[in-house]
Automatic annotation (TrEMBL), chain A:
Keywords: Cell membrane, Membrane, Transmembrane, Transmembrane helix, Transport
Lineage, broadest ranks: Bacteria, Bacillati, Bacillota, Bacilli, Bacillales
Species this protein is from: Sporosarcina globispora
Name under which the protein is recorded: Phosphonate ABC transporter permease
Biological processes, Gene Ontology terms: transmembrane transport
Protein origin, superkingdom: Bacteria
InterPro entries found in the cross-reference section: MetI-like, MetI-like_sf
Pfam families: BPD_transp_1
Domain ABC transmembrane type-1 span(s) in chain numbering: 91-275
Automatic annotation (TrEMBL), chain B:
PANTHER family in alphabetical order: ABC TRANSPORT SYSTEM PERMEASE PROTEIN P69 (PTHR30043:SF1), PHOSPHONATES TRANSPORT SYSTEM PERMEASE PROTEIN (PTHR30043)
GO biological process, one term: transmembrane transport
Subcellular localization, as worded in the UniProt entry: Cell membrane
Domain spans labelled ABC transmembrane type-1: 70-253
Organism, as annotated: Sporosarcina globispora
GO cellular component labels: plasma membrane
Name of a matching Pfam family: BPD_transp_1
UniProt protein name: Phosphonate ABC transporter permease
Length: 285, 261
């Protein structure tokens, strides 16, 4: 009797399987969240298109106009309001802004990155710094620049300080995460042998994560170049971005925008190729 | 012998530091950056912020208007990101080494993505301003182009990473191109793809502020309006709203990432 009941229990799920099709993939939490995220994004996107402020814009007209403009911009570039040499110098200024902010950001971020890494400092310090970083990163760079501009005046000084702020936030996050990947055993072994905190940091932690740090820092340099262009346009930081803003808003000279865009594009692509080379070199080393 | 190695290491480090110092000096000269003024401006900015940069009761009345603009900016960022993601996925599939149709086509798609990625959103905004004017669409397309370039690179790398072996295995069983893409490549890379999309939305909200400043739309314009008219209390409220929105999105995306990755 008991055996029979058990048998029925065993065969029961099988009946159910024969009746319906077995689901191809069990629906777990991850799958549900994945789907929900995609659906939410899709719904919000559709809603967004209905809610846009079109300002009585004829969409097709504008789109065709843009294509015509893009053709003018990219196929007939010229420089009218300044010379090739001047443009090159302005590119150097923008690169200089990016370099300074990355360097200052990196130096400060190494110190705070060490304090933010849970395995090198206390949990409390790490928490405080990490929430501070989240706050710094949440404010867009341009707002940092404009806020500092009230104290320092619009110009490259405010731009460097404001951009450095955001770089610090970004690099602390990157550095502390690579420090935290460090093997706990190494730190413990060094502690046991009587090494102090600075010795652990300089002999073990930084040497073992230096490749990550270099590639993150260079990535930030690339980002800072783009940001420096934008700050030149939006916050009076100077450099090629300012010329682009003038060409767009004052001279309304599309061909000049084209020429400037080519300059920016060339530098960005050179930086990207350089970054790929560094990455490859670090990987093999 | 050993002393030699250490001496050499020291010399190398010194040389690098000298080079770094020289480049720094050069950069400071050409950008006209004033180090003393820069450092002095930090305490000054803090002092000023404490005195002026906080919302007052008066500015709270403007909160509904600000929230409405914030919502507009959020929607623009999300819509631009998702639309860009669809195109980027297509380009990534054609551009990835494992799933491309042929070498030439792969190189072309990668090249297009490189161009789009390396023209900054601010530059796109200034270009698009000519024909789209001060409408939401200027910001939308600027973000769209920038996100498209970035996401194509991210998705390409994801596909390269996750699907090398499985694509080869499926090819060996005789599966067709489309069944390989839809049954293996996309399902196995979807968690990473969603993670990148969420990251891009966060980035785009920040960029949208900048674009708004340049093109006169969205939350960036609202900030600029109050900032330029010296209404710092209301401007600070705008900043707080932006911070809240970004932290909220970050929190949501961190949750999603934790569950799906």
């Amino acid at each position: 009797m008991e055996v029979k009941e058990q048998l029925r229990n065993v065969t029961a799920p099988a009946d159910h399987l024969i009746g319906g099709r077995m689901p191809a993939k069990p629906l777990n939490k991850a799958a549900i969240v994945t789907r929900l995220t995609l659906y939410t994004l899709a719904v919000l996107t559709i809603y967004a298109f209905f809610s846009f402020d079109y300002k009585e814009l004829d969409f097709m007209d504008a789109l065709l106009g843009t294509f015509a403009n893009l053709k003018t911009i990219f196929l007939e570039p010229h420089l009218k309001h300044f010379s090739f040499g001047h443009a090159l110098y302005q590119v150097m200024v923008t690169l200089g802004l990016a370099f300074l902010t990355t360097l200052f950001g990196a130096i400060i971020a190494i110190l705070f990155g060490l304090l933010a890494a849970e395995n090198l400092s206390s949990k409390k310090t790490s928490m405080v710094i990490k929430s501070l970083v989240a706050f710094i990163r949440a404010v867009p760079t341009v707002l940092w620049v404009l806020i500092f501009a009230v104290a320092a005046g619009l110009g490259s000084t405010a731009a460097v300080i404001g951009m450095t702020f955001h770089s610090i936030g970004y690099l602390i996050k990157a550095y502390s995460e690579s420090f935290e990947e460090m093997d706990r055993g190494v730190i413990e072994a060094l502690q046991a042998s009587g090494a102090n905190w600075w010795q652990i940091v300089f002999q073990a932690v930084i040497p073992s994560s230096i490749t990550y740090m270099i590639s993150w820092t260079f990535l930030r340099f690339e980002i800072n170049f783009a940001v420096a262009v934008a700050m030149g346009a939006a916050a009076g930081a100077g450099g090629i971005g300012y010329d682009m803003f003038m060409a767009s808003s004052f001279y309304l000279d599309m061909r000049e925008i084209g020429a400037i865009t080519y300059f920016i594009l060339a530098v960005a692509i050179i930086l990207e190729i350089f970054a790929a080379k560094i990455k490859r070199k670090l990987k093999t080393a | 012998m050993q002393a030699d190695i250490f001496a050499k290491k020291k010399r190398n480090t010194l040389a690098y530091l000298c080079l770094l110092g020289a480049v720094t000096m050069l950069a400071m000269v050409i950008t006209e950056y004033n180090a003393v003024k820069g450092i002095a401006s930090i305490p000054k900015a803090v002092q000023w912020g404490m005195a002026n940069f906080y919302p007052t009761a008066e500015s709270l009345e403007k909160l509904p208007v600000i929230l409405e603009k914030m919502q507009e900016t959020l929607l623009v960022s999300i819509a631009a990101t998702t639309a860009a993601a669809v195109f980027a996925l297509l380009f990534a599939i054609f551009g990835s080494n494992t799933t491309r149709i042929n070498r030439f086509f792969g190189a072309v798609t990668r090249g297009i993505a490189t161009v789009f990625r390396n023209i900054d959103v601010a530059a796109w905004a200034l270009i698009l301003l000519f024909s789209f004017g001060q409408s939401s669409l200027t910001g939308y397309f600027a973000l769209f182009f920038g996100s498209f370039g970035f996401l194509t690179r991210a998705f390409t790398e994801t596909i390269d990473e996750v699907s090398g072996g499985s694509v080869e295995a499926l090819k060996a069983t005789g599966a067709g191109y489309f069944s390989i893409i839809f049954q293996s490549v996309i399902p196995s890379s979807i968690p990473q793809i969603i993670s990148w999309i969420l990251f891009m939305i966060e980035t785009n909200i920040r960029s949208a502020t900048l674009i708004g400043l340049l093109t006169g739309s969205g939350i960036g314009f609202t900030f600029n309006l109050y900032y330029k008219s010296l209404a710092y209390d209301t401007a600070s409220l705008v900043v707080i709203v932006i911070i809240a929105a970004i932290l909220l999105i970050e929190f949501a995306s961190n949750y999603v990432r934790k569950v799906i990755l």
